[in-house]
Amino acid sequence: MRLWSTDNSVEMEEISALAVGETLLAAVISYLIYWRTGSIIHIAVSASLAPFLLLRTKYSTELGLRFGNWASLFVEEVFSFIPNINRLFAEGNYSNYVRYSFIVFLTPLYVLFLLTYVIVTLILFTLCKVAATILGVLRHPLESLGSIAYNWRKAVLYVDIMRTPELIPGVEGVPDNSVSLKYIKEFKNSQLIHNLIYEDLSYLKFPGRYLIAIAYCAGMVFLVIPAIVYRLSLKSTSVLWSPLLWVVRPAADASSIVQTMQRLVRRDVMLVTRVYSVLIIALFFTKLFLSYHWAELRVWIEPSMLWSLVAPLVAPNEIPWWQLAALTNAFLTIALYVAADYYLKELQIKASIPEHALQSSVKSVFIIRNILSIYTMLCTIYIVITNVDYERFPVIGTKLFPWLN
What we know:
By secondary structure, the chain is mostly helical. It has two domains: 7-236, no CATH class; 243-388. It is 72% helix and 0% strand. The protein has helices spanning 7-11, 17-37, 41-53, 58-78, 81-91, 96-105, 107-139, 141-158, 189-200, 209-236, 238-241, 257-266, 268-292, 294-301, 305-314, 321-348, 355-388. The longest helix has 34 residues, at 355-388. It is globular and about 80 Å long. It starts with 6 loop residues before the first helix and ends in a 17-residue tail after the last helix. The chain crosses the membrane at residues 12-33, 97-125, 210-232, 271-290, 321-344, 365-385. Keywords: Membrane, Transmembrane, Transmembrane helix.
């Protein structure tokens, strides 16, 4: 684990302490909103929209960059007059009367142009991302679904505030000498800052320039707000999506089983998964204790506002199937670690291990865990949504699926 993220650490899937701190803070803020408003609709909306934000693949990223390049060309052509206005008033030989008239008559119009520029850019880039995601899912559905777990871990555990949000996914990786993406590269954060300081604002030498500079900088900030909201929405609902920690792609062949076991034992994210599994086991048996003594404890627990938020998930009077699925995954995770650690130590003393049998067993456990994780996650999200509008949806309770009688 490292203190904060870098481009290389995200690539190597290293957990950032700052990212974990941001996730905890976002979850606390989400609870405070509930405590203040008494509504969990913000949690339900974030949890429901997250799948559409997590379906990013290499194909959809490349497609989004191509779409974004065309959108950037359109924006550049339509709003090319803004820098020209700067030059006009900076280089023209005007009297003070004309220059000061600019403050009264043209500054509001200039700010309106900037606002329009920001709104149009956000709409076009959002459409590009949505179109690329939809086409990516239609073209590579299995790859898109398989990317959800990694994208969630990346947003929640790997990426923090030290990595500035991207207007278009992947734009920060576009080379400066790229020809095919020469327009979208102008929307890299580093390029935006460079253009802002050395081009767009360098001509503001007339009265009212400070007001326009503030408006211009504010416009640049608003461009990245959707990306910031995207991050925070994933981090704030991390508890609901936490079963994705158990989702792992099975090893492709027997020759990779040793690497798989090494990852299970040594990777930071696997350590987090084990801690999470131990926590799930502890919470389950705590729930059993509460259920056994519920008649005496409910007087103290039920008045709490926190309890009103988690009660549908705790379900103190019953043991839902999805909780048993989560408990099973937790024990499977601990068992995998114990087995992997044992066989790796066997390899260190040059002992032979049944690689093919291990590969089949580990692959089977991964598949079972993935299925149970998806089931658990869908159930928890369903419970949150039904808690917002409980009259329109049947309750899960102890049923395997909510629509079963």
